[in-house]
Design a protein that fits this description.
The structure holds 2 protein chains of 2 kinds. Chain A is α/β, with parallel strands linked by helices. Helices cover 18% and strands 27% of the residues of chain A. Chain A has a 9-stranded mixed sheet, with helices on both faces. A two-stranded antiparallel sheet of chain A has the order 5-8. The longest helix of chain A is centred in the first third of the chain and has 11 residues. Chain A is globular, with a radius of gyration of 15 Å. Chain B is α+β, with helices and mostly antiparallel strands. Chain B is built from 2 helices and 3 strands. The longest helix of chain B is centred in the last third of the chain and has 16 residues. Chain B is elongated. Classes of the chains: A alpha/beta, B alpha+beta.
Amino acid sequence: MKVAVVRFPGSNCDADAWHAAKDAGHAVAFVWHRSTDLGGADVVVLPGGFAYGDYLRAGAIARFSPVMQAVEAHAKAGRLLLGICNGFQVLCEAGILPGALARNAGLSFVCRWVTLRVEATDTAFTAGYRKGQTLRAPVAHGEGRYVADEATLDRLEREGRVVFRYAGDNPNGALRDIAGITNEGRNVVGMMPHPERAAEALLGCTDGAALFAFAGT
Amino acid sequence: MRWRVRVRIMPRQGILDPQGQAVAHALGSLGFAGVAAARVGRTVELALDAAAEADARDAAKRMCERLLANPVTEDFVVDTAEAIA
């Protein structure tokens, strides 16, 4: 598949995402945030980092980048869109996914391996996993505490849209241990942990590799 | 007319404010007694050209709704608007 990795000023996991997608056998290209052309990509990845220095709020300014109009149209058309860490924050700020990522409850930037439980396998990003399977991936964020109002949380649960939950160690105080969610159409996934940093043996873990298969598409 | 408009953005009541908690704790550690709570938000000061104060305030409100505040986690109030030129 054709994969576009968006680069914002301040993105810093763009090369990692590129590699993970490349290793999964895809044709991968970078797209600069000022571009309005995704190059016919089947899958768009918004990578981790600190777009626009996280000024104002993480993702708040990036969401108004020229490229985001194309990304929103891409998502609306039902094409695949993955936001990792800062990318997840951008997706929430843009309203493509509900809720927000607030400052970590524990006051500190968290940078460690966590265990995730796969809660939904009916997305292209999680089709390669078994429901209930646990996998390991690093987190690295200061604003990763998923919050939404009770009605939104209940709706996400009811519709099976919580994709990943922290298992045991919740590193940021995320409500209901939510680590990743999907949209109504299930073509968009946002997650705080970094599967691209756990996608090859050299990195000490390959649990994240299956995510980049974009299986079932 | 040019107006200086201050908007105050605060973490929404009921949303955990770890920054405020840390500040309250630090104040207690420094010996400031009686700090029951602290909350940390932000102030944005804008220099705005508008015909009248109401227009300047309205513009600031729309800026908060669009960019300056996140409706999921924050509340905002347009605090002051004063003519500066």
